[in-house]
């Protein structure tokens, strides 16, 4: 009888564990994000992680920095990531190559270019004509930073190919060090590098490409169409967490955001991070909601076309899904 009681006890224990797992357990899902670079420009993403907004949705985020649009998209296409944070132009490039599983933009993070024009010399009365005849250290050809940069130059009557010496053969991660070592009179840089150079006297911020190029889907979260169809609840949870973070950044001072995201920029002072966050907020770079609208999509393709990099025009509804973001915002 004693053996029978033990056996029954074990069976009841297993039944109780199974019941608790079925009723009480919210299973944690892992989402692998490949971000194109590490930048204060992506502050809302880091806030979503650090403030526990993803965790609240039952998501475990694995964040990897893949350093460059090509590498980021390759990682996504090879199933090395579930979601990519990269410029929307990459989804157009993939689509134009005839992909059977297109990359869908489902949640926007930034809505302007995030780079700044940095001069080696301090120019108190900068005009865009100062670039004529200069050596300009630009970004990778075909990437959104370079296209937005060229768009701004042409807007001010400068032909990037003929009015200056344009350097585009430096790897993305090495552009700051190339400028610091003496290459170029002007350079196009992301933050915090632009502000770091200014603080160190290496260069001086003279203009914002974000202000010059207008609103566009500069960096968005995207995934394969198949992933979104197979994991609709995960995508919804992900977008809900992002929206919470976007609202948090919008409604809190830059100083608070700086404190939260400091672990991602260990070599940068909290004061400098605050300066950068404030600069991005003041020019409206952080999207305050995850919706990528038609006007932004059209502006993106206009900039790509102006740069001679648009392989084909792609309809808004083909590569943009706002349903998830709209449902989250209506809650």
Automatic annotation (TrEMBL):
UniProt cross-references to PROSITE patterns, sorted A to Z: PROKAR_LIPOPROTEIN
A Pfam cross-reference name: NMT1_2
Keyword Signal: yes
Signal peptide location: 1-21
Cellular localization per UniProt: Periplasm
Main location: periplasm
Keywords associated with the record: Signal
Top-level lineage group: Bacteria
PANTHER family: ALIPHATIC SULFONATES-BINDING PROTEIN-RELATED (PTHR30024), TAURINE-BINDING PERIPLASMIC PROTEIN (PTHR30024:SF47)
Family of this protein: Belongs to the bacterial solute-binding protein SsuA/TauA family.
Protein name stated in the entry: ABC transporter substrate-binding protein
């Amino acid at each position: 009888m004693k053996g029978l009681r033990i056996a029954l006890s074990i069976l009841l224990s297993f039944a109780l564990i199974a019941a608790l797992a079925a009723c009480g357990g919210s299973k944690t899902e892992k989402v692998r994000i490949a971000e194109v670079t590490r930048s204060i420009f992506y502050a809302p993403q880091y806030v979503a992680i650090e403030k526990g907004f993803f965790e609240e949705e039952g998501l475990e985020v694995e964040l990897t920095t893949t350093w460059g649009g090509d590498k980021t998209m390759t990682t996504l296409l090879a199933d090395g990531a579930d979601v990519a944070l990269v410029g929307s132009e990459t989804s157009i490039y993939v689509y134009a190559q005839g992909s059977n599983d297109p990359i869908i933009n489902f949640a926007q993070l930034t809505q302007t270019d995030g780079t700044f024009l940095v001069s080696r010399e301090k120019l108190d009365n900068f005009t865009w004509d100062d670039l004529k005849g200069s050596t300009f250290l630009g970004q990778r050809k075909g990437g959104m930073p370079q296209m937005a940069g060229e768009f701004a130059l042409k807007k001010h009557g400068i032909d990037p190919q003929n009015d200056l010496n344009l350097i585009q053969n430096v790897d993305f991660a090495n552009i700051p060090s190339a400028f610091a070592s003496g290459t170029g009179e002007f350079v196009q840089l992301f933050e915090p590098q632009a502000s770091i150079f200014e603080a160190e006297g290496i260069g001086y911020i003279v203009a914002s490409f974000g202000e010059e190029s207008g609103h566009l889907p500069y960096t968005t979260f995207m995934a394969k169409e198949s992933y979104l169809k197979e994991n609709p609840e995960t995508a919804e949870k992900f977008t809900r967490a992002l929206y919470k973070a976007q609202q948090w950044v919008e409604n809190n001072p830059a100083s608070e955001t700086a404190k939260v995201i400091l672990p991602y920029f260990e070599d940068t002072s909290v004061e400098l991070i605050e300066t950068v966050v404030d600069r991005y907020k003041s020019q409206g770079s952080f999207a305050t909601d995850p919706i990528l609208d038609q006007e932004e999509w059209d502006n993106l393709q206009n900039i790509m076309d102006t740069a001679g990099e648009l392989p084909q025009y792609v309809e808004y509804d083909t590569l943009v899904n706002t349903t998830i973001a709209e449902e989250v915002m209506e809650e």
